[in-house]
């Protein structure tokens, strides 16, 4: 007998669960792309995208995923041969650096490993050594989707200001926007990146780059941009099509408009942040209980201050990460994330990791349900683990 029939739950860190309302908003006939509803809605979306990033900066909408906005940011920030300093705290930091290198940027990488946040003192040393100010931009992730580390962005801005270093600060917020507290202007971020398929609760296909007036001015001479990636016409289009360098992604825009209404005008951004924080603590409480019976079980990031509120990376010991994922999907209709970047897929250690997402359109019963299925899976697979995980998780919810 199988118990997986019914509505499945995709608990991976993107694409996240798409609300029925968003799907319904997309389910309509193609609109007039020259005037009327679509044009008016796009202007509202631009204002809402600024609100969700808590910024007055410009924003460009790209028909792309997160990898696309990596390339968009690089194309607008740099000329060939210019230097970036990239702060890596997981696989996605490395991915951004690889894209920059392939586009002709000289990248210095400070790699903080797979289980630790940025060490500000090491960044400070690197910038102090840059006496000629060759580093044009510091690139970093807010939340690395693979490691689930959450970095302190404001500390890096304050350090740049204290040193008087002119490098622009560019932040990948693909896994954190609409989940974790993020204040672009207050934190002094010059360039911010995000995508539609995570905290913004919309199917994959839209990428966003916010850029300050300072970034726009200082990047005017950058020579890597091509007509499609150029952010200038997207920020101040003379014709509607320039928002998208061509035909608008009409149905994605209908869905995004509905998602932003849910986030900003119905729940409210600070309530959204609080909900994600509570659900994250719920997951952590379950892992604390499970790990009491098995030191092989644990969270990837030890300090709660640096844990993401949108995704939790964890270890179960080989082969139980993979076995538990497969059991949960097969028997409980819960799909968990792979342990991306924690080990090479050809390495046996790869099978000891997984990720639990709690981002976007997620509530208490979804998170508690996923944890209950995981608890059942540990029992079914005979994995040694501590008791009381579901009680501990429920207690967090009851006190939220």
Short description:
Helices cover 40% and strands 15% of the residues. A seven-stranded mixed β-sheet has the order 2-8-7-6-5-3-4, sandwiched between helices. A five-stranded mixed β-sheet has the order 1-11-12-10-9.
Task: List the total number of helices.
Answer: 13
From the helix content, strand content and strand pairing, which structural class follows? alpha/beta
How far apart, in Å, are the first and last alpha carbons? Answer: 37 Å
Helix content: 40-55%
Largest sheet: 7 strands, mixed
CATH superfamily of the largest domain: Type I PLP-dependent aspartate aminotransferase-like (Major domain)
The gyration radius over C-alpha positions equals 21 Å
Give the percentage of residues in beta strands. Answer: 15-25%
CATH architecture label of the largest domain: 3-Layer(aba) Sandwich
Order of helices and strands: EHHEHEHEHEHEEEHHHHEEHEEHH
Number of strands: 12
Domain count: 2
Spatial arrangement of strands, main beta sheet: 2-8-7-6-5-3-4
Average pLDDT level: 97
Shape: globular
Low-confidence stretches: none
Annotation keywords:
five-stranded mixed β-sheet, 13 helices, 12 strands, Aspartate Aminotransferase, domain 2, 2 domains, seven-stranded mixed β-sheet, 400 residues, single chain, Aspartate Aminotransferase, domain 1, alpha/beta
